[in-house]
Amino acid sequence: MADLGGRITVERAGPPVRVTGVTTLPDRRLLLVHAHPDDESIGTGATMAHYAATGAHVTLVTCTLGEEGEIHVPALAGLCAAEADQLGGYRIGELTAACAALGVTDHRFLGGAGRYRDSGMMGLATNEHPRAFWQADLDEAAAYLVDVIREVRPQVLVTYDPDGFYGHPDHIQAHRVAMRAVELAADEGIAPAKVYWTAMPRSVLDAGLETFTESSDNPFAGIESADELPFGTPDAEIAARIDATDQYAAKEAAMRAHATQIPANSWLYSIAGNFGGEFMGVEYFTLAVGDKGPGAGPYGWEGDLFAGIAVDGAQRSPVAAAGLR
Fold first, then answer.
1. Which CATH superfamily hosts domain 29-317?
2. Is 72 flagged in the annotation as binding?
3. Does 39 count as an annotated binding residue?
4. How far apart are alpha carbons 135 and 130 in whole angstroms?
């Protein structure tokens, strides 16, 4: 196990908390970097619940409080940015509940809660807010993340692709910050052995378009081809498929914790009702840094993000030697 300078204690009671003392963490350590509260549940909730349930140490870093999000609870409309501007504080509680549903006990905000503000969608005036994450100094923000890497020593890091999956400025910035942090950590010899980006295989999108064509609750209404969507990865470029269908209920519970952002009648829950674990419990990733481990199927998709990593305590850092690709 990586030498963390002694023993680390993780507080178990109350809301999700950071590692606070000194002891030995589990052999497998996973770090996820997300832009806003709810991104973790929608994009990687099943994966997080899977690894937490199997004994890995799962650390979630959220870059903003999501102050510019829509509010789908009418009674809370006054929290919006244009009025009380208290949505971010409220969403801390939602994220706490979501982490509890996923079994994640180690969560932090990048640089501390409120250090960076939700930038809103691309091109809006909110992008120019002085605390907007989109405006963050890259090295400063990355240094905050290196602090987490230095403490936890994750072998695997998960974040978004260079387009932030669908182009949101905070997702793009989270990608930039995470990848810069990996570079800086490599200089210290503590970089994660593997870095994955969230992804959606083109075959899954094509199947979804076909499945929901006749549905009255069609999330792809008006879209005739997956090529029209702002995301989608060729199957041959997918590196890992995490089958956590036994955790789909945990993922759904985490999503429901984000009630201000995901309405109770969301098409996501309708699909979950029809397809259950098959929809909620399988998540996909491309490999950005590190060596692909053993896999299966026509493209050799890994079934474990730690595939090929010797988790016997030796911290590998291929980035330092090979550079980012």
1. LmbE-like (3.40.50.10320)
2. no
3. yes
4. 7
